[in-house]
Design a protein that fits this description.
Layout lengths: L2 E4 L12 H9 L4 E8 L5 E3 L20 H5 L12 H8 L4 E6 L5 H13 L8 E5 L2 H10 L4 E6 L3 H10 L4 E4 L6 H9 L3 E2 L7 H10 L3 E4 L6
Bound molecules: SN-glycerol-3-phosphate and calcium ion (CA).
C-alpha cells in the first residue's frame, strides 16, 4: 500500500497548514498529514511554512518575533487561524499519522519535548509520527535526543547524499524531490532499509510515475489523487 500523505494538510483544497486543511485531508482519505513547524517569540510551536506570516496570512512580520497572541489574531485563509502543533495533533489524533517538518531554526528540542509527552502519556504511538527536515543537523540533534523517533531527511538537490545521511541517522525514510528519483534510486534506498516518500507530487501522471518506481508514500497537496 502506498501511503497518501497530505502536504500542508491538503493544500490543494484548503488554506495550507490550517486545521481546515488537516481535517479535509482526513476526510479525503489521507493516511498521514505533513506540516511545517516554527517556534514563535513566546516559545510555542506553531504550524506555518514560511519564516514570515506575509504570504499565508493577512498580516506581516517574522514568526520568530511574534507572540502566539499576535499570530492568532491573523487570518490564515477562510477565517482560519495559524494552529499550534498541539492543536493539530488533537484534531487528527487516532485518524492519521503526522509528518512534522522541522522548518524553523531550533525546533528539534521543543519538538522532542512535545513528542515525548505524547509518547509517554500513551496518546500517540511512535510509529504514527515521522520527523523530517532539509536541515540534517536538526535531524542529528533529534536522533541524539531520541533513538526511537522516526526520521526522514528531506532533499531537493542532494538526493544521493540524503541516502548516506539517512543511513547515518538510522532514518525510517528518505524524502526526495520527486523529479530527482527513478527506479534505481528507489532500489538503492530499499537496499539501505529506507522507505521513499517523494514530494510534492500533484499531477496524476507524476503520481503514477513515482508509484511505478516502488515508493512507499507520496506527499501531495491532493492526497485524494494518490
Ligand atoms: O515534506 C516535503 C515538502 O513539504 C518540502 O517542501 O517547501 O513544501 O516544505 P516544502
Ligand atoms: Ca513541508
Amino acid at each position: 500500500m502506498v501511503l497518501r500523505i497530505g502536504h500542508r494538510g491538503a493544500a490543494g483544497h484548503e488554506p495550507e497548514n490550517t486545521l481546515r486543511a488537516f481535517t479535509t485531508a482526513v476526510s479525503l482519505g489521507a493516511d498521514m498529514v505533513e506540516l511545517d513547524v516554527h517556534i514563535c517569540a513566546t516559545g510555542e510551536l506553531v504550524v506555518i511554512h514560511d519564516e514570515t506570516v506575509d504570504r499565508t496570512t493577512d498580516g506581516s512580520g517574522a514568526v520568530a518575533e511574534m507572540t502566539l497572541r499576535e499570530l492568532r489574531s491573523l487570518d490564515a485563509g477562510k477565517g482560519e487561524k495559524i494552529p499550534t502543533l498541539g492543536e493539530v495533533f488533537s484534531v487528527v489524533r487516532g485518524r492519521v499519522g503526522v509528518n512534522i517538518e522541522l522548518k524553523g531554526f531550533g525546533t528539534a528540542e521543543p519538538v522532542y519535548d512535545f513528542l515525548m509527552r505524547l509518547f509517554d502519556d500513551g496518546s500517540w504511538r511512535v510509529d504514527s509520527v515521522l520527523v523530517t527536515s532539509f536541515d540534517w543537523g536538526m535531524l542529528r540533534r533529534m536522533r541524539e535526543l531520541s533513538g526511537e523517533t522516526r526520521l526522514g531527511p528531506l532533499a531537493y538537490e542532494d538526493v544521493i547524499k540524503a541516502l548516506a545521511t539517512a543511513s547515518e541517522l538510522d532514518a525510517y525514510s528518505v524524502n526526495p524531490y520527486h523529479r530527482r528519483i527513478d527506479t534505481a534510486y528507489v532500489s538503492r534506498a530499499h537496499a539501505a532499509g529506507l522507505r521513499v516518500y517523494p514530494w510534492t507530487v500533484n499531477e496524476p501522471g507524476d503520481i503514477r510515475r513515482v508509484v511505478g518506481f516502488g515508493v512507499e508514500g507520496v506527499i501531495s497537496d491532493y492526497p485524494d489523487r494518490v
